[in-house]
């Protein structure tokens, strides 16, 4: 049994024997490693002050991604490299180009958010991000700054991305071979007085652990589960980490379907979906932030079954199917039969989501709209997805699904019925919008009133109609009068 | 002024003094300080009821929770169990009655933060519920106030309104705002000998923390030292409300005789600390056919929460800014400070000014809509004059009006008129999206309106090697104060700024300080530091003249050297010589703002030393199907006087603008029916992100030749005024909403203009027009 978590902190090998199973990377950094450059601003993944970069083996190289250290458990770093703001200075002690640019453009005021921004920008530059406004905005969506108004930080980003990249201090080859060594051993099994963290490497090991601990909490990206610990102070007894299971990280694309492993991070899953359904590009750009999408998975989003989870409405419209597994037994569940009630799913005991299969239909016209208070890094007030197949002038297929309108993400059968077989006209659309009244009775909460939800849901049907008819309907894509 | 050749003198765009430490993670904030042997961690236990008598508070399980070292509540306070900057009406721990959900009931210290936080949830309280008051409307109806109503007036507004050719009535409600400083509230208290207490506090007001800690511990000011090197943002939220955090840390430290770190979890911070005051503003205005205001009356009702805090001065400042840039001949401003069972609202950048301005700007917009003329023309018609029509409602003469240069310049540079036509054309041609455009001005009074607070001290020491230690009463919260003050002292001594170290603000270095607030940090502390440097410099001049036998006016400080008659020597050498000649190389400096006075009884006087001005043009686009909106372009022209550091000032303008924009658009505080704050985390409370900032964001500083008053290097305060430039975003959104409707109607829209509020406003307009 291996109970030692081993990872590189910068270029130093760190071995932590039997750490608390749910201690977060941030807690470790600030209290044990005493690397206080990484800050806590919220401990729930929303502010980015805790942003660090994790290097992970992918084939022949090490892939670097920014994540929120506040909600990720330390033990998930096993076999990886962790880089914090303290690792960036060059060997001669001078500032890294990203840091230098932030100084030059006056990108810090109080400086509390700054290490997080620096790490997000470092990851962007390490991944050869383009120096365009939209790329930069997307990379920074998960970093809040209350002082600067962001303009100077965007300028720093533009400056540094336009310059030739500087050599990093750590040697990529050395890191690669060190990580290769670290990932050779058996699964990590931590046990602290009966509280456990188990990290199976394949489905078989997973099954073994599940037999022993049938009530274990499964964790993938921990972008939901992490908050149970940091915010709700839940004590999790046994945690099974799915992130190392190779079978859950597959992506397969055939002529008529795309299959995505449940534990594929959203960052990798989204581009695959976008190849077939380009409308999902701008939509998923508004799903959380870069850091959250680097950790969070499609499987986790679905299994969490939040009524306001964003991937479900489009997947419902696209008629996705889940393959779920218990031990060696698998079964398929159409996504629209998966959600039973508020945060209740059709998953049985010890059953996991293995893959999500999305049929590729080239004749479906798709529209997906997220409504939230803020454009970026916000949870949906309402999320509407629409798919129609129009032949001649007639709607021959129609699927409509909403998030934020009921206790689960759900299709809108009355609305679908009002579209089906009807001519593709504004009049049909109005009637379909009216039909939504019978599909949903939304509630009021801090994200929006029932009245607004009802109204905006109706209006989204019209928005879809306009978009399909060729109108540009994204307000965030519009420009000023002087630029017309 | 001589040509500056030193590095980092005034007017130079040098980076923030801690910039390198910020980007490398090496800057130490309170929670980053090395952990002291024996240190424990604290958490606060909070009330679950909005208004109730505490029948019983059972803390047994808290005591027994793992890792717990100390638990204290009201009866464990050795001194006075309350604080407050003006009225001591805020209990550290609720004793008999809780008055809002989240009010502090007790505190616990444990070996780890997690243990403390878990323990803090284990109390069992028995309450007898009392009837709560939550809203301004309820409070007004019941006459529930934290302080008595107050009125300011000039002329005869009711008569002027009655006799005017046109009149309108309207109402706007402005929402509150959470500070959302990235670094939450935190303090570390370290007990010393004699029962002394050393407190590291993330506070804008170390002296107040010192006094309050002394009082709760039953000690005196000399026993307490408070220190703060830097804050991770404050914005007014750490002016008063850092104090109870420090008090609780000190009480626990005193109780268990161990260092105590109290750092609030973000959610607790948002529940437990006050916000910007929400206002209900009613107005009645009479005006002529050109839009000239003949008489106006305002009723300002502010939600203050359970205690006075700074609400007296905040609502006063709303009154002082109910004129904004406009001459109001006949005006009555009534104000009400409503007591509600919500957390006590507090200082926030602008300090009531933003709310006051929204009132009068709404009046202007409504007049413009009713007459069918461009709001900019109504504004221009009503601007303060230069030689006439230049007395404010509180009797102060406006002597530094720059609006007549500023507004036309911005109108030109922003291409306002052409864009107005382009927006109209766009709106005529498009039904899905509507655009809006607005130019709004700002005139903001600089000084604490409580006159005696306008004082500051500094301490400057030169060491034998010629390097300088600089300390002053102001605190660094990101605004660049330490940088500017160092530039001022560098300029005075003519040495590179790198030779100067500004050290942590501490009550044992500079005593009896005012809060770093009211945008006055540089004005007050800059002058005090300059005075200290001048004192030492005068001694050096004396010494050099004497030592080298030249007249005093031939001793000149320039670029790290001192020329003495025909010869010269490095600054450092002169310092060395002076030391050996036993010249004192350390001095305090002091400054008190001259001229200001205010008589609250008659609501008249000169509460401000001067005004800072600015204006902004914003263009927005609104989605009429969803209410979502986007700011497309912003042009700002701001008057920072002769800037000490233009890079820092532009940073303040942009940061203030975006913060104001957040307040007016996406930042919405929502409570449930039981007085529970639902938006207590960044997951539900949405401050702007990078994508909300317009790609086309043009900010210029207006060159007016400098402040007319003798303010340090003729600069102007720049901390708060830019926040109100964002009013243009709100009124541009209103403009776009109004454009959905072909006929002219008076539009009533509250803030923040969330997508929901925008869409519902559009719906309401459509219904009204259909009727
Ligand atoms: C700051 C922030 C912003 C966010 N923004 C959005 C947003 O805009 N839109 C949105 O939809 N969501 C958002 N989320 C939520 C979100 O990130 C997810 O729901 C995410 O997709 C969950 O994936 P995960 O891998 O992190 O799941 P985890 O947290 O690891 O797990 C979530 C749940 O799924 C279960 N689970 C995970 N994998 C499996 C599996 N293979 N089989 C069975 N059960 C499994 C876990 O047991 C747990 O119950 C946000 C979260 C945060 C913290
Ligand atoms: S601390 Fe805010 S995202 Fe991690
Ligand atoms: S610089 Fe203060 S929060 Fe960004």
Question: What is shown here, in short?
Answer:
The complex is a heterodimer of chains A (484) and B (771). Chain A is α+β, with helices and mostly antiparallel strands. Chain A is 31% helix and 23% strand.
Textual characterization of the structure:
With 484 residues, chain A is of the alpha+beta class. Chain A contains 16 helices and 20 strands. In chain A, the strands form 5 sheets. In chain A, strands 2-1-5-3-4 form a 5-stranded mixed beta sheet. Chain A has a 5-stranded antiparallel beta sheet with strand order 10-11-16-12-13, with helices on one face. Chain A has a 4-stranded mixed beta sheet with strand order 6-7-9-8, with helices on one face. The longest helix of chain A has 19 residues, at 450-468. Chain A is globular and about 70 Å long. In chain B, the strands form 8 sheets. Chain B has an 8-stranded mixed beta sheet. In chain B, strands 9-17-16-15-10 form a 5-stranded mixed beta sheet, sandwiched between helices. In chain B, a hairpin with a 5-residue loop joins strand 19 and strand 20 (468-472). Chain B is globular and about 85 Å long. Chains A and B meet through helix 2, helix 3, helix 4, helix 5 and helix 16 of A and helix 1, helix 3, helix 13, strand 18 and strand 29 of B. Flavin-adenine dinucleotide (FAD) binds next to strand 8, helix 11, helix 12 and strand 16 of chain A.
Ligands (ions, cofactors included):
flavin-adenine dinucleotide, FE2/S2 (inorganic) cluster
The neighbouring-strand order within the major sheet of chain B is 3-7-1-14-11-12-13-22
Q: Helicity range of the residues of chain B?
A: 25-40%
Query: Helical stretch count of chain B?
Result: 19
Tally the beta strands of chain A: 20
Coarse shape of chain B = globular
Shape of chain A: globular
**Share of β-strand residues of chain A:** 15-25%
> Radius of gyration of chain B, Cα only, in angstroms?
27 Å
Q: Report strand order across the widest sheet of chain A.
A: 2-1-5-3-4
- Give the overall average pLDDT of chain B: 97
Mean pLDDT of chain A: 96
């Amino acid at each position: 049994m291996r109970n030692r978590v081993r990872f590189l902190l910068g270029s130093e090998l760190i071995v932590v024997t039997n750490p608390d199973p749910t201690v977060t990377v941030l807690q470790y950094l600030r209290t044990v490693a005493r690397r206080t450059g990484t800050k806590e601003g919220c401990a729930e993944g929303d502010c980015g002050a805790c942003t660090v970069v994790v290097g992970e083996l992918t084939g022949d190289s090490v892939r670097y991604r920014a994540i929120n250290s506040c909600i990720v458990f330390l033990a998930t770093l096993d076999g990886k490299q962790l880089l914090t703001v303290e690792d960036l200075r060059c060997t001669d002690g001078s500032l890294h180009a990203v840091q230098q640019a932030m100084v030059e453009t006056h990108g810090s005021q109080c400086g509390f958010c700054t290490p997080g921004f620096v790490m997000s920008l470092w990851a962007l530059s390490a991944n050869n991000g383009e120096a365009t406004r939209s790329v930069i905005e997307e990379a920074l969506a998960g970093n809040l700054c209350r002082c600067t108004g962001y303009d100077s930080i965007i300028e720093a980003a533009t400056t540094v991305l336009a310059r030739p990249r500087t050599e990093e201090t750590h040697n990529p080859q050395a890191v690669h071979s060190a990580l290769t060594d670290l990932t050779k051993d058996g699964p990590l099994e931590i046990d602290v007085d009966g509280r456990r963290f188990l990290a199976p490497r394949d489905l078989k090991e997973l099954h073994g652990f599940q037999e022993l601990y049938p009530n274990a909490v499964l964790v993938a990206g921990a972008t939901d589960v992490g908050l149970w610990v940091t915010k709700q102070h839940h004590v999790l007894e046994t945690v099974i980490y799915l992130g190392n299971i190779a079978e859950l990280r597959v992506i397969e694309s055939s002529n008529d379907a795309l299959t995505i492993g449940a534990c594929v991070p959203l960052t990798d899953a989204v581009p695959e979906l976008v190849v077939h359904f380009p409308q999902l590009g701008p939509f998923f750009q508004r799903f959380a932030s870069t850091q959250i999408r680097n950790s969070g998975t499609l499987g986790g989003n679905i299994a969490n079954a939040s009524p306001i989870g964003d991937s479900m409405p489009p997947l419902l419209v696209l008629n996705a199917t889940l393959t779920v597994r218990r031990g060696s037994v698998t079964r398929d569940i159409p996504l629209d039969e998966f959600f039973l009630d508020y945060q209740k799913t059709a998953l049985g005991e010890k059953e996991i989501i293995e893959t999500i299969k999305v049929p590729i239909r080239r004749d479906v016209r798709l529209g997906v709209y997220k409504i939230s208070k803020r454009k970026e890094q916000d949870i949906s007030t309402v999320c509407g997805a629409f798919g129609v197949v129009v032949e001649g002038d007639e709607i021959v297929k129609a699927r409509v699904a909403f998030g934020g309108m009921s206790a689960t993400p759900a299709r809108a059968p009355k609305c679908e019925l009002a579209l089906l077989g009807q001519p593709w006209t504004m009049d049909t659309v109005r009637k379909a919008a009216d039909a939504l009244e019978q599909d949903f009775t939304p509630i009021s909460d801090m994200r929006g009133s029932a009245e607004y939800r009802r109204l905006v849901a109706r209006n989204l049907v019209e928005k879809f109609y306009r978009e399909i008819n060729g109108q540009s309907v994204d307000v965030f894509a519009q420009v000023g009068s002087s630029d017309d | 002024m001589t040509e500056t050749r030193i590095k980092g003198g005034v007017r130079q765009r040098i980076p923030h003094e801690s910039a390198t430490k910020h980007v490398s993670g090496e800057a130490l904030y309170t929670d980053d300080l090395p952990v002291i042997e024996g240190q424990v961690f604290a958490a606060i236990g909070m009330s679950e009821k909005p208004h109730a008598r505490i029948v019983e508070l059972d803390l047994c399980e808290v005591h027994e929770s793992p890792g717990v070292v100390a638990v204290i509540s009201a009866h464990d306070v050795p001194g006075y169990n309350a604080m407050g900057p003006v009225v001591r009406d805020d209990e550290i721990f609720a004793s008999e009655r809780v008055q809002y959900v989240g009010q502090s009931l007790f505190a616990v210290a444990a070996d780890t933060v997690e243990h403390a936080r878990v323990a803090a949830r284990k109390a069992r309280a028995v309450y007898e519920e009392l009837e709560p008051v939550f809203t301004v409307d309820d409070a007004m109806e019941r006459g529930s106030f934290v302080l008595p109503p107050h009125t300011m007036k000039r002329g005869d507004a009711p008569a002027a309104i009655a006799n005017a050719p046109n009149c309108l009535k309207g109402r706007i409600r402005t929402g509150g705002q959470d500070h959302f400083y990235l670094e939450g509230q935190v303090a570390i208290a370290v007990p010393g000998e004699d029962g002394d207490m050393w407190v590291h506090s993330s506070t804008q007001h170390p002296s107040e923390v010192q006094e309050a800690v002394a009082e709760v511990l039953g000690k005196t000011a000399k026993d307490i030292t408070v220190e703060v090197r830097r804050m991770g943002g404050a914005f007014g939220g750490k002016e008063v409300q850092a104090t109870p955090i420090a008090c609780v840390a000190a009480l626990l430290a005193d109780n268990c005789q161990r260092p105590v770190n109290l750092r609030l979890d973000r959610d607790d911070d948002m529940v437990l600390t006050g916000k910007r005051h929400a206002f209900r503003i009613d107005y009645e205005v009479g005006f002529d056919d050109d839009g000239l205001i003949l008489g106006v009356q305002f009723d300002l009702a502010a939600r203050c929460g359970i205690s006075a805090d700074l609400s007296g001065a905040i609502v006063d400042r709303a009154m002082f800014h109910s004129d904004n840039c406009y001459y109001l001949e006949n005006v009555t401003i009534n104000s009400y400070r409503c007591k509600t069972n919500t957390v006590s609202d507090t200082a926030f950048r602008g300090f009531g000014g933003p709310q006051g301005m929204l009132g009068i700007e709404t009046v202007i917009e409504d007049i413009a809509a009713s007459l069918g003329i461009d709001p900019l023309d109504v504004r221009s018609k009503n601007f303060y004059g230069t030689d006439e029509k230049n007395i404010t409602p509180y009797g102060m003469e406006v002597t530094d009006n720059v609006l007549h240069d500023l507004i036309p310049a911005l109108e030109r540079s922003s291409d306002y008129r052409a864009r107005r036509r382009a927006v109209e054309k766009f709106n005529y041609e498009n039904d899905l999206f509507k655009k809006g455009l607005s130019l709004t001005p700002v005139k903001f009074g600089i000084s604490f309106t409580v006159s005696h607070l306008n004082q500051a001290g500094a301490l400057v020491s030169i060491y034998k090697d010629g390097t300088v230690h600089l300390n002053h009463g102001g605190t660094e919260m990101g605004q660049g104060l330490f940088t500017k003050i160092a530039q001022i002292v560098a300029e005075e001594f003519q040495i590179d700024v790198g030779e100067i170290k500004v050290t942590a603000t501490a009550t044992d270095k500079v005593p009896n300080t005012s809060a770093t607030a009211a945008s006055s940090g540089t004005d007050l502390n800059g002058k005090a530091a300059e005075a200290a440097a001048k004192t030492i410099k005068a001694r050096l001049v004396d010494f050099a003249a004497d030592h080298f036998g030249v007249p005093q006016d031939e001793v000149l400080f320039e670029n790290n050297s001192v020329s003495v008659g025909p010869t010269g020597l490095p600054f450092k050498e002169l310092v060395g010589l002076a030391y050996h000649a036993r010249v004192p190389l350390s001095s305090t400096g002091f400054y008190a703002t001259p001229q200001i006075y205010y008589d609250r009884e008659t609501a008249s006087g000169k509460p401000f030393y001067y005004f800072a001005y600015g204006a902004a043009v914003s263009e927005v686009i609104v989605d009429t199907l969803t209410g979502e909106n986007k700011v497309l372009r912003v042009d700002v022209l701001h008057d920072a006087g002769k800037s000490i550091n233009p890079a820092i000032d532009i940073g303040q303008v942009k940061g203030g603008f975006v913060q104001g924009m957040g307040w007016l658009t996406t930042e919405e505080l929502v409570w449930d029916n039981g007085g529970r704050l639902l938006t207590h985390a960044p997951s539900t409370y949405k401050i702007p992100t990078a994508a909300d900032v317009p790609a086309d964001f043009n900010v210029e500083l207006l060159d007016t030749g400098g402040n007319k008053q003798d303010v340090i290097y003729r600069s102007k305060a720049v901390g708060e005024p830019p926040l109100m430039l964002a009013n243009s975003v709100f009124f541009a959104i209103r403009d776009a909403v109004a454009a959905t409707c072909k006929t002219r109607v008076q539009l009533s829209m509250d803030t923040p203009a969330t997508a929901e509020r925008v869409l519902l406003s559009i719906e309401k307009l459509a219904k009204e027009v259909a009727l």
